[in-house]
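User: Could you check the structure of this?
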Amino acid sequence: MLYVIGELFSCIFWGALIGIATTLALFYLPKMIAPHYSYNPLGFFLLAFGLIFLGFQSTFFIGGVKVKSYLPTKEQIVSLLPQVNISSSSVNLKEVSAELVSQYPMLADYVEDINIEKLEVGETVFSNAFEVASYYTKNIQSAVNGYLWRRVAWFMGAVCLIGFYFFNDASKQGRRRRTATTRRRSRMLD
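Assistant: Sure, the predicted C-alpha coordinates are below.
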Protein backbone atom coordinates (compact mmCIF):
# COMPACT_ATOMS: atom_id res chain seq x y z
CA MET A 1 0.00 0.00 0.00
CA LEU A 2 2.81 2.41 0.82
CA TYR A 3 4.39 1.59 -2.53
CA VAL A 4 1.24 2.67 -4.38
CA ILE A 5 1.07 5.89 -2.35
CA GLY A 6 4.72 6.55 -3.18
CA GLU A 7 4.01 5.99 -6.88
CA LEU A 8 1.03 8.36 -6.65
CA PHE A 9 3.09 11.14 -5.09
CA SER A 10 5.85 10.51 -7.60
CA CYS A 11 3.37 11.01 -10.46
CA ILE A 12 2.02 14.18 -8.89
CA PHE A 13 5.51 15.57 -8.27
CA TRP A 14 6.82 14.91 -11.77
CA GLY A 15 3.57 16.00 -13.40
CA ALA A 16 3.57 19.27 -11.48
CA LEU A 17 7.24 19.82 -12.31
CA ILE A 18 6.60 19.30 -16.03
CA GLY A 19 3.54 21.59 -15.87
CA ILE A 20 5.50 24.34 -14.11
CA ALA A 21 8.44 24.08 -16.52
CA THR A 22 6.16 24.25 -19.56
CA THR A 23 4.20 27.18 -18.13
CA LEU A 24 7.45 29.05 -17.43
CA ALA A 25 8.55 28.45 -21.00
CA LEU A 26 5.21 29.83 -22.20
CA PHE A 27 5.64 32.79 -19.83
CA TYR A 28 9.02 33.74 -21.33
CA LEU A 29 7.97 33.15 -24.96
CA PRO A 30 6.49 36.65 -25.46
CA LYS A 31 9.51 38.30 -23.81
CA MET A 32 11.78 36.53 -26.30
CA ILE A 33 9.70 37.77 -29.24
CA ALA A 34 9.07 41.32 -27.98
CA PRO A 35 11.38 42.35 -25.12
CA HIS A 36 8.99 45.08 -23.93
CA TYR A 37 5.96 42.82 -23.86
CA SER A 38 3.37 43.63 -21.21
CA TYR A 39 1.00 40.91 -20.05
CA ASN A 40 -2.74 41.52 -20.13
CA PRO A 41 -5.36 39.82 -17.90
CA LEU A 42 -6.19 37.24 -20.56
CA GLY A 43 -2.52 36.29 -20.72
CA PHE A 44 -2.38 35.73 -16.97
CA PHE A 45 -5.59 33.72 -17.12
CA LEU A 46 -4.14 31.53 -19.88
CA LEU A 47 -0.96 31.01 -17.88
CA ALA A 48 -2.95 30.01 -14.78
CA PHE A 49 -5.14 27.71 -16.86
CA GLY A 50 -2.05 26.29 -18.54
CA LEU A 51 -0.35 25.63 -15.21
CA ILE A 52 -3.32 23.65 -13.92
CA PHE A 53 -4.25 21.90 -17.18
CA LEU A 54 -0.71 21.02 -18.21
CA GLY A 55 0.06 19.85 -14.68
CA PHE A 56 -2.92 17.50 -14.72
CA GLN A 57 -2.21 16.18 -18.20
CA SER A 58 1.44 15.50 -17.44
CA THR A 59 0.49 13.86 -14.12
CA PHE A 60 -1.95 11.59 -15.94
CA PHE A 61 0.70 10.83 -18.57
CA ILE A 62 3.30 9.90 -15.95
CA GLY A 63 0.67 7.73 -14.23
CA GLY A 64 -0.11 6.01 -17.53
CA VAL A 65 3.57 5.31 -18.11
CA LYS A 66 3.81 3.79 -14.63
CA VAL A 67 0.71 1.65 -15.27
CA LYS A 68 2.24 0.52 -18.55
CA SER A 69 5.29 -0.73 -16.67
CA TYR A 70 3.00 -2.97 -14.59
CA LEU A 71 1.17 -4.54 -17.54
CA PRO A 72 1.12 -8.30 -17.29
CA THR A 73 2.95 -10.30 -19.92
CA LYS A 74 1.34 -13.14 -21.84
CA GLU A 75 3.10 -15.62 -19.60
CA GLN A 76 1.74 -13.96 -16.46
CA ILE A 77 -1.79 -14.10 -17.85
CA VAL A 78 -1.35 -17.75 -18.82
CA SER A 79 -0.27 -18.49 -15.26
CA LEU A 80 -3.60 -17.04 -14.06
CA LEU A 81 -5.67 -19.17 -16.43
CA PRO A 82 -5.48 -22.50 -14.53
CA GLN A 83 -6.92 -20.71 -11.51
CA VAL A 84 -10.14 -20.06 -13.46
CA ASN A 85 -10.54 -23.68 -14.66
CA ILE A 86 -9.88 -23.01 -18.30
CA SER A 87 -9.66 -25.83 -20.80
CA SER A 88 -8.45 -25.63 -24.35
CA SER A 89 -11.94 -26.21 -25.76
CA SER A 90 -14.07 -23.81 -23.68
CA VAL A 91 -12.98 -20.40 -22.51
CA ASN A 92 -14.99 -18.47 -19.94
CA LEU A 93 -13.73 -14.97 -20.62
CA LYS A 94 -15.70 -13.44 -17.75
CA GLU A 95 -13.77 -15.60 -15.30
CA VAL A 96 -10.50 -14.68 -16.99
CA SER A 97 -11.39 -10.97 -16.75
CA ALA A 98 -12.39 -11.29 -13.09
CA GLU A 99 -9.15 -13.10 -12.21
CA LEU A 100 -7.07 -10.56 -14.14
CA VAL A 101 -8.75 -7.66 -12.31
CA SER A 102 -8.26 -9.35 -8.93
CA GLN A 103 -4.54 -9.83 -9.62
CA TYR A 104 -3.99 -6.42 -11.28
CA PRO A 105 -6.53 -3.95 -9.81
CA MET A 106 -4.93 -0.96 -11.56
CA LEU A 107 -5.98 -2.46 -14.89
CA ALA A 108 -9.67 -2.81 -14.01
CA ASP A 109 -10.83 -0.02 -16.34
CA TYR A 110 -8.82 -1.40 -19.24
CA VAL A 111 -9.99 -4.99 -18.74
CA GLU A 112 -13.62 -3.84 -18.55
CA ASP A 113 -13.19 -2.07 -21.91
CA ILE A 114 -12.32 -5.35 -23.64
CA ASN A 115 -15.34 -6.43 -25.65
CA ILE A 116 -15.81 -10.05 -24.59
CA GLU A 117 -19.49 -10.25 -25.57
CA LYS A 118 -18.66 -10.48 -29.28
CA LEU A 119 -16.12 -13.23 -28.52
CA GLU A 120 -18.65 -15.29 -26.60
CA VAL A 121 -21.00 -15.26 -29.59
CA GLY A 122 -18.32 -17.18 -31.46
CA GLU A 123 -16.70 -14.55 -33.63
CA THR A 124 -13.23 -15.56 -32.42
CA VAL A 125 -12.29 -19.00 -31.22
CA PHE A 126 -9.19 -19.55 -29.10
CA SER A 127 -7.39 -22.83 -29.52
CA ASN A 128 -5.28 -22.56 -26.38
CA ALA A 129 -4.63 -20.49 -23.28
CA PHE A 130 -1.72 -18.64 -24.90
CA GLU A 131 -4.08 -17.16 -27.52
CA VAL A 132 -6.41 -15.93 -24.77
CA ALA A 133 -3.46 -14.33 -22.99
CA SER A 134 -2.24 -12.83 -26.24
CA TYR A 135 -5.70 -11.37 -26.89
CA TYR A 136 -5.88 -9.76 -23.44
CA THR A 137 -2.31 -8.45 -23.57
CA LYS A 138 -2.83 -6.88 -27.00
CA ASN A 139 -6.08 -5.19 -25.97
CA ILE A 140 -4.78 -3.87 -22.65
CA GLN A 141 -1.60 -2.51 -24.25
CA SER A 142 -3.65 -0.89 -26.99
CA ALA A 143 -5.94 0.78 -24.44
CA VAL A 144 -3.02 2.10 -22.36
CA ASN A 145 -1.23 3.38 -25.48
CA GLY A 146 -4.41 5.15 -26.58
CA TYR A 147 -4.68 6.74 -23.15
CA LEU A 148 -1.07 7.95 -23.33
CA TRP A 149 -1.50 9.39 -26.83
CA ARG A 150 -4.64 11.25 -25.73
CA ARG A 151 -2.67 12.82 -22.86
CA VAL A 152 0.08 13.87 -25.30
CA ALA A 153 -2.49 15.31 -27.73
CA TRP A 154 -4.24 17.36 -25.02
CA PHE A 155 -0.91 18.57 -23.64
CA MET A 156 0.48 19.59 -27.03
CA GLY A 157 -2.84 21.13 -28.08
CA ALA A 158 -2.89 23.34 -25.00
CA VAL A 159 0.77 24.32 -25.45
CA CYS A 160 0.16 25.20 -29.11
CA LEU A 161 -2.97 27.27 -28.39
CA ILE A 162 -1.41 29.18 -25.50
CA GLY A 163 1.84 29.62 -27.43
CA PHE A 164 -0.06 30.85 -30.49
CA TYR A 165 -1.91 33.41 -28.38
CA PHE A 166 1.30 34.76 -26.83
CA PHE A 167 3.18 34.72 -30.14
CA ASN A 168 0.37 36.60 -31.84
CA ASP A 169 -0.06 39.09 -28.98
CA ALA A 170 3.70 39.71 -28.72
CA SER A 171 3.92 40.30 -32.46
CA LYS A 172 1.08 42.83 -32.28
CA GLN A 173 2.67 44.65 -29.34
CA GLY A 174 6.03 44.68 -31.12
CA ARG A 175 4.46 46.17 -34.26
CA ARG A 176 2.61 48.81 -32.23
CA ARG A 177 5.80 49.75 -30.42
CA ARG A 178 7.81 50.01 -33.66
CA THR A 179 5.06 52.07 -35.31
CA ALA A 180 4.93 54.48 -32.35
CA THR A 181 8.73 54.83 -32.37
CA THR A 182 8.73 55.53 -36.11
CA ARG A 183 6.07 58.23 -35.69
CA ARG A 184 8.06 59.93 -32.93
CA ARG A 185 11.20 59.92 -35.05
CA SER A 186 9.38 61.34 -38.05
CA ARG A 187 7.95 64.14 -35.89
CA MET A 188 11.44 64.96 -34.61
CA LEU A 189 12.74 65.16 -38.16
CA ASP A 190 9.97 67.57 -39.24
